Amino acid sequence: MDVFASTFHPAAEAAAALPAAGRHLPIFRNCVDPDDPATLVARCVRPGAPLSGDWFLLLTRRRLVITQDTRPLHRTRLHLNAHLRQVSNVTWRLDLSKPGIELALTAMDGVRERLRMRLGDSDTVWRTEQLLRDTFVCKPALV
Question: Which of 25, 31, 32, 47 has the greatest count of CB atoms below 10 A from its CB?
Fold first, then answer.
């Protein structure tokens, strides 16, 4: 078993993204090298488009991949596949009242992406915030 496969399910389970994230595994697998471990798999929504379906974010040590599960047909599609060096201006805000983190970043094409990660509890929020801090080395804003 490769490194990505052995780390994907624990990362998705830690962020309460299973079993739905499993449907996106073929897309993630095509975007990530087998030796690149998954550090975060999270279910997300778009704050500006709440009816656009479910979104899933995969963060590895080298890549950021975002997929969409469209409504009403529930088709999975790739939205963003970027090396971490191609992502800039990454910021996030913690929301402990409804456990989650709102993440904003600028992709390589200059488009500003905003996602709200749905996380199970405040402990998961803090673990995810530390992971984002370790990955992107920037200051978050508390809500």
Answer: 32
10-residue averages of pLDDT along the chain (143 residues): 88 84 92 95 86 88 93 87 94 91 94 91 92 78 50
- Give the list of residues 6+ apart from residue 105 with CB closer than 8 angstroms, or none: 64, 87, 88, 89, 90, 91, 112, 113
CA atoms within 13 A on the CB side of 105: 24
What single letter denotes the amino acid at residue 32?
A: V
Model pLDDT, residue 68: 93
pTM of the model: 0.89
| Closest C-alpha among 86, 87, 84, 65 to residue 76 | 65
CA angle, 109 as apex, 104 and 114 as ends, to 5°? 20
Tell me the two tokens of residue 35: 């030796």
d(CA 31, CA 128): 22
Cα separation, 54 vs 56, whole angstroms: 7
Query: 42-62 in b/e burial notation, b at 16+ Cβ within 10 A?
Result: bbbbbeeeeeebbbbbbbbee
